[in-house]
Amino acid sequence: MIELEGLTKRYGDKLAVDHLTFQVRPGMITGFLGPNGAGKSTTMRMMLDLDNPTAGSVRIDGKHYRDLQEPLKYIGALLDAKNMHGGRSAYHNLLCLAQSNRIPASRVAEVLDTVGLTAVAKKKSKGFSLGMGQRLGIAYALLGDPEILMFDEPVNGLDPEGIHWIRNLMKSLAAQGRTVFVSSHLMSEMALTADHLIVIGQGKLLADTSMAGFIRENSRSYVRVRTPQPEQFKDAASAAGLSVSLREDGSFEIEGADMAEPVGELAAQHRVTLHQLSPQQASLEEAFMQMTAQAVEYHAHNLNDPGAAAAAAQADPPLAQNAPPAPGQQGQGPQWGKGD
Amino acid sequence: MAAPSAVLKSEWTKVRTVSSTMWTLAAALVLTAAVGALLSGVMNATYDDLSRAEQLTFDPTLVSFFGMMLGQLAMVVFGVLVVSTEYSSGMIRTSLAAVPQRAAFYVSKVVVATLLALVVGLLTSFVTFFVGQALLGDHSASITDDNVLRAVIGAGLYMTVITMFSMGVAAMLRSTVLSLGLLMAFFFLISSILAGVPATRDVARYLPDQAGSAVMQVVPGALDSDKLPYGPWGGFGIMCAWAAAALIGGYAVLKKRDA
User: Fold this and answer.
1) Are A81 and A114 members of one domain?
2) Residue B123 confidence class, pLDDT cut points 50, 70, 90
3) Are residues A294 and A308 in the same domain?
4) What is the DSSP string of A151-188?
5) % of residues, chain A, pLDDT over 70
6) The CATH number of the domain where A270 resides is what?
7) Mean pLDDT along residues B163-169
8) pLDDT tens by residue, A321-336
9) Nearest-CA distance from B212 to chain A in Å?
10) What whole-number distance in Å separates Cα of residue A266 and Cα of residue A268?
11) What confidence score (pLDDT) does residue A310 get?
């Protein structure tokens, strides 16, 4: 269990982390979601007592981090794959860290095996690819067999097989009753792994909810209609008591998941020609972008207006010529790059 | 609080598993001994060309340690790298997450590197002394002569303390490039220039390397140089004070700043 209370970090006159209060509970994966510069990495560094908070506190099982005896046995963290000495072998990088917490050397070989780096254990870590570095960082996190694990953007730099592996690893760690806290800037990634979701933007807490609850509240279903006879269609729909909204591009939206059938029948009755009748579902990525639109710090150059960005994201991808790249599975708009 | 012996062991593993340790320490020994040997040989061959005053204050022990000018730079590099690579690699975050008690982390690192520097420093000073004296022929000193053993041990201590000073500076600057740039320029150029210019000579005597090297002198006013305002241990004490100040400054930065 990790408890944050009023955690605040100020750099000059800029609040990087703004009174964050939340808990990370055991036995599940808690996703820590936010756009670039939202303060995710800063928060995680403060949780490990690397950065000093301006105000507030972090408790790990009720204790301050620096009061932990041999902390690697309580909490293991992957912050950045590059946080190792490149001139040292993978084995020796882990060995010196293990020794400081009186973890036996045999455990070093064990975790190297777990992450699949046994073959390169004696190689200097500066020659490692980003994916291998990420695996070395995960090996470090697992070193003390801790009850709490923290991963900052763990899928970064991993190939699809590696991404699959880390997802399963996190799930199995949570299934063993451990606390897993993982940050990401990709909603799609979180939707696949997290049980609980903490969303921040510009250092502020935006949501602290179960993943299921977030999906329920934020995945909007509707039917899109295009017609050359908008007036007739609108009148007919209003007469039938449907709530219809006209969009800027001239199409209509009718709320509800299974509205395609009744709308089609209604159009037939009134002899209205339809050019499009399609059920739509707003993705979680869109919901996340809407939620953080006001809080996104680094907008792409042509998207100064957060409202416009959100509206563009709402439009159908094929029609949204001026919209940012579709916020689909792995697709990333320019403002969703790595690193805080 | 992490167990002190565990943190010491961890820091020892860190030092012995990077190749820069071997290279810098070997360079310190070879440079000090080789340059000392070269100068000893030259002095022996040209002894008769020295002035009367220089002959009267001839200090064979100090002559054999001339290579310290270069050898100390290798110790500076060693001391800087032990600390600064934690920052340049980002390892500092991993290290402090494992040992969040920053005092324990810092003291262990300094103690391990200092002990290693002491062993290498003493080895260097004895090797350098005996090689140098062998090449000085008739003008050599014996280890049993008055104050010679003190000077030889002092040379080893000098290398140790210069390493400690460098670690403190690196901990304050948290950057390999900055630390090396500053210390190299200082020890190789600035200190000797200040000592050579009459206007600044009196102040330069209190710089760490100038004061510390008094411990390597056997003959006061060796080679017709000015009399120093402090004795050999007094000078060494001034150098130790510099190192202590740098290390305390380094700790203050580590304690206060975000990693």
Assistant:
1) yes
2) very high
3) yes
4) EESTTTT--HHHHHHHHHHHHHHHHTT-EEEEEES-HH
5) 86
6) 3.30.70.120
7) 98
8) 343 443 433 433 334 4
9) 33
10) 5
11) 44
How is chain B split into domains, by residue range? 4-256
Residue A173 pLDDT level (bands cut at 50, 70, 90): very high
Q: Indicate if the pLDDT at residue A298 is higher than 80.
A: no
Domain boundary pick from A197, A216, A235: A216
Measuring CA to CA, which residue among A307, A296, A303 is closest to residue A324?
Answer: A303
Q: What is the pLDDT of residue A5?
A: 96
Structure tokens at A38: 């939202």
Identify whether residues A114 and A183 lie together within a single domain. Answer: yes
Spatial distance between the Cα atoms of A184 and A31, rounded to a whole number of angstroms:
7
Domain identity same for A60 and A197? yes
Q: Which residues of A touch B95 (CB under 8 A)?
A: 97, 100
B88 CB within 8 Å of a chain A CB: no
A64 and A92 in a single domain? The answer is: yes
pLDDT tens digits, residue range A29-59? 999 999 888 999 999 999 999 999 999 999 9
Check CB contact under 8 Å for A85 and B101: no
CB A72 to CB B9 under 8 A? no
Cα separation, A133 vs A83, whole angstroms: 9
User: Among all residues of chain A, which has the CA nearest to that of B108?
Assistant: A100
Same domain? For A151 and A277 the reply is no
Total domains present in chain A: 3
Distance CA B230, CA A104 (A): 51
Give the number of other CB atoms < 10 A from CB of residue B192.
Answer: 16
From edge to edge, which strands make up the β-sheet containing A2-11?
A14-24, A2-11, A55-60
Which of A261-265, A322-326, B41-45 is predicted least confidently? A322-326
Q: Are residues A79 and A189 in the same domain?
A: yes
Contact between residue A22 and residue A208 where contact means Cβ atoms under 8 Å apart: yes
pLDDT band at B3 (very low <50, low <70, confident <90, very high): confident
Determine whether the interchain pair A83/B90 forms a contact, defined as Cβ–Cβ distance below 8 Å. yes
- The predicted-structure confidence for A122-141, as pLDDT tens digits, reads as follows 999 999 988 899 999 999 99
Q: Is the Cα dihedral A290, A294, A298, A299 positive or negative?
A: positive
The residue with tokens 């130790």 is B240
Q: Summarize chain A as % helix, strand, coil (round to 5).
A: 35, 25, 40
Specify the CATH number for the domain of residue A124. Answer: 3.40.50.300
Pair of tokens at residue B10: 């961890």
Q: Which domain holds residue A243?
A: 221-281
Contact between B101 and A79 using a beta-carbon 8 Å cutoff = no
Domain identity same for A31 and A104: yes
C-alpha–C-alpha distance, residues A111 and A105, integer Å: 10
